[in-house]
Amino acid sequence: MRRDPAGGKEMIHEARLWLPDEKGAVVCSLCSHRCRIRRGEFGVCGVRKNLEGRLVTYAYGEVVAVHADPIEKKPLYHFLPGTRSLSIATAGCNFRCPFCQNWQISQLRRADGRVEGSRPLPPEDVVRLAEDGGCRSVSYTYTEPTIFYEYAADCGRLAKRAGLANVFVTNGYMTAEALESAKPWLDACNVDLKAFRDDTYKRICGARLEPVLESIRLMARLKIWLEVTTLVVPGLNDGSDELRDIARFIAGVGADIPWHISRYHPDYKYDEAPPTPLETLRKAADIGAEEGLRFVYIGNVAAGRDDTVCPSCGAILIRRAGFSVSAVRLKNGRCPKCGTAIPGVFG
């Protein structure tokens, strides 16, 4: 950690996962943009900079959000249900989604100037806050945790030693190198699979589809607990064929991966669609079941499908109302009625 030599008061930190390139440039291998960054310039994320031929990050330990949330808010329904997770974020993102619900912090870029409202929070203080708040995990969320990887990694290792789990709520655009290096301390991920058309990713997010799909496959291979969320946006990704492609892909990776279908509300720069009709969400859930997914949830609506139900006998195993859990009826990870094993991390 050192001061910005340009004269500012912000602290900078040496970045990881990069290589030097010709003429003083660097190539970042943290996310799938794999930016080639010339001296004095920032990558797409706006927080990683080529400073005198070395890659540094301005996101280390400068948090813009700290909250103790129900783990269901991530959403994770099969990972330590009913517990709280200390949730932290630094500014910035490597996507530019016009309907982002956290745009006030995700679209802040150090490349555009100082990030007002941030405050320093060392990794040891993150763990202390989690323990003092009775949290069972630390979640790196609200913005894109991949871009503050160095900070998350240091927090994650300390959290692991203290018996806490670590969670990424992510767009899934990290590289295989980043994901494999995080495996020793990363326990669970919820990946936001925004669409199943590469053109949508290019046009809406400024990214590509395949790296997200590969991250989901790799998480499953690494045995990081995985759940997937899709925000269903009318006119963008709500066609039956596309929803079926998403469900079929997830089922192909693992039929036990929970799929969270979320309702869109107009926000930030995207007002081209009304809130998602409930019948569209129900249609998506039916498609998920038809494609073999055993756990499909509807969120962001009062009349959603929040309960975890035994896929064999239909018994309600975890009863929820929004982010609140009122009953967990599992017995050693199994349905107490028929004995079916329920995938997840239940503790």
Q: How far apart are the termini?
A: 37 Å
- Note the beta-strand portion: 15-25%
- Assign the CATH topology of the largest domain: TIM Barrel
Secondary-structure-based class equals alpha/beta
The topology string of helices and strands comes to EEEEEEEEEHEHEHEHEHHEHEHEEEE
The number of distinct helices, counting runs of at least 4 residues, comes to 8
**Averaged pLDDT:** 94
CATH architecture of the largest domain: Alpha-Beta Barrel
Which term fits the overall shape?
A: globular
The name of the CATH superfamily of the largest domain reads Aldolase class I
Query: Which parts are unreliable, with pLDDT below 50 for 5 consecutive residues or more?
Result: 3-9
Instruction: Tell me the number of strands.
Output: 19
Major sheet size, sense and barrel closure: 9 strands, mixed
CATH class of the largest domain: Alpha Beta
Relative helix content: 10-25%
Q: Report the radius of gyration as a whole number of Å.
A: 20 Å
**Whole-number count of domains:** 3
In which order are the strands of the major sheet placed?
Answer: 10-8-9-11-12-13-14-15-16
